[in-house]
Amino acid sequence: MALVAWASVWLVYAAIDPGVLLHPTVVLPSPYLEGIRYLASNDTIPGPGYLLGVAWTGGRWWYWPGILAVKTVPTTLLLLLVGPWGLLAANSGTRRRAALVLGLPAILLVVFTVGLPRDIGLRYLLPVIALWLVLATSIVPAVRTRAVGAALVVVVVVAGAATIASTPDSLAWTTPPFTPAFQVATNSDVDWGQSLYLLQQWSRGKEPRVAYFGPRESTPTPFPGPAHCSPPHRRGCVAGWPSQRPI
Fold first, then answer.
1. Interval 71-129: pLDDT, tens
2. Residues 6+ apart with CB under 8 A from 25
3. What are phi and psi of 65, to 5 degrees?
4. Distance (Å) of CA 114 to CA 31, 60, 107, 124, 154
5. I want to staple 13 with a disulfide (CB 3.0 to 4.6 A). Which of 29, 56, 94, 247 is the partner?
6. Cα dihedral across residues 153, 128, 218, 244: positive or negative
């Protein structure tokens, strides 16, 4: 498993930029190590958080169950809550293997994530949700009825419909009644650079002042025309163009 993980990192980075193969390191690609060093310094500093009208700086444990309810399709959330109970019908060997292979990694990731001083997005818990969903499938062999099969079909259909309805702003989607998204959440729970191309298209023929929120090292330079970054302390003095929906 360690060898596959190591090789996968190298293959992905080499596919994106073959030049990484020339860097003086054989352990991991240099950009990967630089990213880890950045996270070690940046993500250990308390950052601003916001959820459902409450703002704070630092970490709050209740942010994670709260944002899970805000950002998860209701039927999928129900599966996550009900599914693992199917393990009660399994034999002790199955429960022990599930706890070791799925439960232990998920718990370690939860402890590590909740301990972070930056509550900026549910994406930090995506590996835990993936393990949780696998654990939730234990409900299928435990309850062999047509009702369970029909319920799983509903889960898939509703999740698919939510995905289609959220396009092209899927990253910013929040489940009803927690809408509009910008009033209940912030940071990468609402946007993490997903509207960069839309902003580029919109700014043609204009001279926008941009306060852009996105991945590290993103700047207004890709925007057509003389774009300027608006300083945070002066944003309230800048008048913007009217728009039917926020960019």
1. 999 998 988 888 888 888 778 888 888 888 888 999 999 998 888 898 988 988 999 99
2. 33
3. -65, -30
4. 26, 8, 10, 9, 31
5. 29
6. positive
Task: Determine, yes or no, domain membership for 149.
Answer: yes
At 172, the amino acid letter reads: A
| pLDDT digit string, tens, across residues 153-203 | 888 899 899 989 888 778 888 998 898 888 899 888 887 666 677 777 777
Burial of 119 (0-12, 13-18, 19+ CB in 10 A): buried
Terminal Cα-to-Cα distance of the chain (whole angstroms): 42
Is there a single domain that holds both residue 6 and residue 128?
no
Read off the pLDDT band of 236 (50, 70, 90): low
Tell whether 139 and 78 lie within a shared domain. Answer: yes
- Token readout for 159 is 């999740």
* For range 214-232, the mean pLDDT: 54
Alpha-carbon distance 247 to 149, whole Å?
Answer: 41
Residues 66 and 147 in one domain: yes
Write 43-50 long-range contacts (CB < 8 A, 24+).
Answer: 43/116, 43/118, 44/116, 44/117, 45/117, 45/118, 46/117, 46/118, 47/117, 47/118, 47/119, 47/120, 48/186, 48/187, 49/118, 49/119, 49/120, 49/186, 49/187, 50/185, 50/186, 50/187
How many whole angstroms separate alpha carbon 102 and alpha carbon 188? 26
Tokens at 95, concatenated: 């429960």
Q: Which residues contact 204 (CB under 8 A, 6 or more apart)?
A: 224, 225
